[in-house]
Design brief:
Blueprint: E1 24-26, H1 30-60, H2 67-87, H3 89-95, E2 98-102, E3 105-110, E4 116-121, E5 125-131, H4 134-139, E6 141-148, E7 156-162, H5 163-173
Helix pairs in contact: 1-2, 1-3
Length: about 180
């Protein structure tokens, strides 16, 4: 007896990927915009404060006239560096940050110049937190904070995750046993 072939109109759906599948993932791309917003705030306040300080120094000082153009040049250089860091650096940093969750724990890789890879086994996780600041909430992002036991890292942060994914990773890292005496 022949078994019928599956109908070509019925497509097989691959299983949905699980959270702890060991795949290296990038942070949410919205983290670039978030870091740019933070950079704009820092640049405006730092540049304004520096310029106001130069103005006060100009009005209240008897310094040589050549000092103030030099200070204005320094202000322009610092402001230009901050603008570059605000608009270019978040993309570079994003490309060099990733994480991987597997059944045994989480591995976080970061760093452009100095790379660091931190692996936190599930067996070492004491507790975890997920937090959101006001700007993170605007972009739907959160920061996963892991507190491992017995390592040099008393706290491991992973910012730039979608908030729902941060909550899911937190739940994955929590102990599955109920022998906690508290």
């Amino acid at each position: 007896m022949d078994t019928p072939e599956p109908s070509p109109s019925v497509a097989t759906v691959p299983p949905a990927p699980t959270l702890a599948d060991g795949t290296r993932r990038s942070l949410d791309p919205a983290v670039v915009d978030l870091n740019r917003d933070v950079g704009i705030i820092v640049t405006v306040f730092t540049s304004s404060g520096f310029l106001i300080g130069i103005g006060i120094l100009y009005l209240a000082s008897d310094a040589q006239r050549w000092v103030f153009p030099l200070l204005l040049f320094a202000w322009a250089a610092v402001t230009a560096a901050l603008v570059w860091q605000t608009f270019r650096w978040p993309e570079i940093d994003y490309r060099h940050a990733s994480y991987r969750v597997d059944p045994l724990g989480i591995e976080i890789a970061r760093g452009v110049i100095w790379r660091s890879v931190v692996h936190v086994p599930v067996s070492r996780v004491q507790h975890t937190d997920v937090s959101q600041g006001p700007l993170q909430r605007r972009y739907g992002l959160g920061t996963l904070t892991i507190y491992p036991a017995g390592t040099e890292y008393a706290r491991v942060d992973l910012p730039g995750l979608p908030h729902e994914r941060a909550l899911a990773i937190r739940d994955h890292l929590l102990p599955k046993r109920s022998d906690d005496g508290v």
